[in-house]
Amino acid sequence: MRAKIAGLILGLCAAALVAGAGFAAWRALRPSAAPAIVHAFIGASAITLPSGYFRPSSIGGGRLEKLELAAFFPDFTAAGDLADVNSMTNLDERFQKLVFVTITEADSSLDPADRPVKLYARFLDPEEWTHPGGLIARAFLPGSPFEGEELYFVAPEGREFAARCGKPDEARKTPNSCIEDFRIEELNIELRFSANLLSEWEKLMAGAKGLIESARR
Question: Measured on CA atoms in the order 46, 50, 53, 58, is the torsion positive or negative?
Fold first, then answer.
């Protein structure tokens, strides 16, 4: 009798294992759900991207005055929906590779490429130094509108790249972040990123422009 019961239990266990393996295989073979696609409009421009790129303020899509996205450097994969964040996430490491992208409609204001010469130059300290990545750096003068920041740019005029970066504040332990602005046709784009990415500015610009161009198709 005991032998029959033991045999029955072993049979049930084997059946359960087979069923479990079959379910696991079905899950592995089943195609994963495609991410939702969001359509947003900035002026006359249409932007279409998977929902994971959109920050909470822009997730609804539609017609917006300002579109806010987030991506990870260097591959510019989606980072706007915080899907990767959990109790084990190292937020400092996440920040180091995070790029915030803000898109607005271009207007009659000064082209961002002209700002280093036509806006920033008169507020910069004459002293300069070099930075990895081939950049030139100059601090903004005390009392200027950009006091407490530094400008990192490609010589001679910063048209190719010019980022304003806050000076590190060890007392407050605030992240040292930068802002780079550029224009693509009828759109103004602002990138906000960790100063640690300055030396990778060429990859940063190529990735951001590639993301936006692909989203406009």
Answer: positive
Q: From 167, 192, 194, 198, select the one nearest 68 (Cα to Cα).
A: 192
Report the DSSP pairing between strands 62-63 and 37-42.
parallel
- How does pLDDT run across 135-169, given as a tens digit for each residue? 999 999 999 999 999 999 999 999 999 999 998 76
pLDDT tier for residue 90 given thresholds of 50, 70 and 90: confident
pTM above 0.90, yes or no: no
Coil, strand or helix at 206: helix
Angle at 59 between CA 57 and CA 62, to 5 degrees: 100
Amino acid 51: pLDDT: 95
Average pLDDT, the chain: 85
Q: How far apart are CA 144 and CA 161, in angstroms?
A: 21
Q: What values do phi and psi take at 184, rounded to 5?
A: -120, 105
Q: Residue 201 and residue 17: Cα distance in Å, rounded?
A: 53
Distance of CA 93 to the CA centre of its chain: 13
Q: Is the pLDDT of residue 19 over 80?
A: no
| Six token digits for residue 52 | 């994971």
72 within 8 A of 85, measured Cβ to Cβ = no
Q: How far apart are CA 37 and CA 215, in angstroms?
A: 11
Determine which helix (DSSP H) or strand (DSSP E) holds 187, and give its type and residue range.
Answer: strand 187-194
